[in-house]
Design brief:
With 473 residues, the chain is of the alpha+beta class. It folds into three domains: 108 residues, Nucleotidyltransferase, domain 5 (2-Layer Sandwich); 77 residues, Dna Ligase, domain 1 (2-Layer Sandwich), CATH 3.30.1490.110; 156 residues, 2-Layer Sandwich (Nucleotidyltransferase, domain 5). The strands form five sheets. A five-stranded mixed β-sheet has the order 3-2-1-6-11. It has a five-stranded mixed β-sheet with strand order 14-13-12-17-18, with helices on both faces. The chain contains twelve helices and 18 strands. Helix 7 crosses helix 8. The N terminus is likely disordered.
Length: 473
């Protein structure tokens, strides 16, 4: 009895609409299982987290360690969610990522028919045939704005009529080897990769509002090994890039500058670190235990802040360079909504103030909790979960789109089913309570004759079909 109930539960869980986001980061690997509730918000079913032991600056450099880390995170997520995990939407970053702008067009065969999603996909497929540098592969083809015949600045061309369909695209490119390594790790961990998404795009889904994207905003996702940037204006992705520095290099600087081990350096950064030395007192010290009987070490919090500040300023200057490359300081391209800082590195004290000063833009810390319906203990509130929640949202979007396509195909099948030849409906006289046995027999005979007529028609139709195929042969 218990076994039957367990099987029923498994079947029920299997049929539930849930998705999984898998963030393969430099310092941690996170798997989040969730589904959309009746109000459109995300209900998190389970979270799994494991230390990342094979990724350096967003790039896999040890296959077996990365596979083990993925398995550990997924196993924990499965246990907490109580559902099997098979398909995952995975994030990608790394210094090998670059982006470019490209315009392309197609000439439609039937301009009298309106533009459909198939036309958009045909145009995207044409862009995907672009010749890249040796060893590179296109990850994303993101339409910015369309042009139909002579009409430009179109956001949504579906439903319009025209011969020439043209668009400007933001194309994201990465090293083929790095992409293949991620795919292999996911596959060897017993999972199927549903989609591969650029991490800053995933983070932007989780922490940016539509108003910010319209006004102009830059998301700066400071991870362990990389700092990812995505710039939006007029609800269009304008620029993406990956800076090969993150919170990990700050920890390295503290370790070298204070002559302590990495574990203590990370703890110092998280608990006492500050990005602005002027806000720290000279007289405040923290004691680090000595190694193997050696004397304890006292470190000034102002000195610690100076070490951190030097590296953070360098990273923010690189962010500034990317903002200038896009043209964020021009009036037409100005980022009215400023900068949104997210990722684990954005937890650093006084980082927002330093970002305001260095870039000249107002900034805020981006949290993904506004999209989560059941985060009562605020566990997922931290900006370090922004990417993984964004990947979950992307996975849910893919599932919703697939469901819509399936529904349309099912509706088309129903409409295009061959109609059966009309058969005259039986006319059955209602049997009155006063009917005689003879009348009842007559009605029964009429019903039998009608059934025979139907059968004869069906048989004759099958004979005709059979004869047709025999003649073709």
């Amino acid at each position: 009895m218990e076994k039957v109930e367990k099987n029923q539960i498994d079947i029920k869980m299997e049929n539930q609409e849930y998705s999984v986001g898998l963030d393969i980061g430099t310092t941690k690997i996170v798997a989040i299982v969730g589904r959309r509730n009746a109000h459109g918000k995300i209900e998190v079913l389970g979270v799994g987290k494991a230390k990342s032991l094979g990724v350096h600056k967003g790039i896999v450099n040890n296959i077996s360690q990365t596979i083990n880390s993925i398995k550990a995170a997924v196993s924990e997520a499965q246990s907490s969610a109580g559902v099997p995990i098979r398909k995952v939407t995975v994030g990608i970053a790394g210094k090998h990522i670059r982006s470019l702008q490209h315009s392309d067009y197609i000439m439609r065969e039937h301009p009298d028919k309106f533009i459909t999603d198939d036309d958009i996909e045909a145009l995207k497929d044409q862009v995907k045939k672009l010749v890249m540098l040796p060893g590179e592969e296109i990850i994303h083809v993101l339409p910015q704005e369309y042009k139909v015949d002579s009409e430009g600045e179109i956001q949504e061309p579906v439903g319009m009529h025209g011969k020439r369909l043209e668009a400007n695209f933001h194309v994201v490119v990465g090293q083929m080897g790095s992409i293949r390594n991620i795919a292999r790790c996911v596959r060897e961990a017993g999972l199927e990769m549903e989609a591969l998404t650029l991490e800053p795009l995933a983070s932007s889904e989780a922490v940016l509002t539509k108003e910010e994207k319209e006004a102009g905003v830059a998301i700066v996702d400071i991870g362990g090994g990389t700092t990812d940037i995505a710039i939006f204006k007029d609800n269009i992705i304008r620029h993406t890039c990956v800076i090969p520095y993150g919170g990990g290099i700050i920890t390295e600087d503290i370790k070298e500058g204070c002559s302590i081990i990495e574990k203590h350096a990370e703890q110092l950064k998280v608990k006492f670190g500050s990005a602005v030395p002027e806000l720290e007192k000279d007289s405040t010290f923290v004691t680090i235990p000595g190694l193997h009987g050696r004397p304890d070490k006292e470190i000034s919090l102002k000195t610690l802040a100076q070490i951190i500040n030097a590296r953070v300023e360098e990273v923010l200057e690189m962010v500034n360079t990317e903002l200038k490359a896009y043209g964020a300081f021009e009036q037409k391209k100005k980022l009215i909504a400023g900068i949104v800082l997210t990722g684990g590195g954005s937890n650093l004290k006084h980082l927002r103030q330093l970002a305001n000063y260095t870039t000249g833009f107002d900034s805020r810390i981006g949290f993904a909790n506004e999209y989560i319906a059941n985060d009562k203990n605020q566990y997922l509130k931290g900006p370090e979960f922004a990417t993984s929640i964004g990947l979950l949202m992307e996975s849910l979007k893919i599932r919703d789109k697939k469901q819509t396509v399936d529904d349309i195909e099912e509706a088309v099948k129903e409409q295009t089913k061959p109609e059966a030849a009309p058969v005259q409906a039986e006319t059955v006289q209602p049997i009155q309570q006063t009917a005689t046995p003879v009348q009842e027999q007559q009605i029964a005979d009429e019903r039998q004759e009608n059934r025979k007529a139907k059968l004869t028609f069906g048989q004759s139709l099958m004979e005709k079909v059979k004869k047709f195929f025999e003649e073709v042969e």
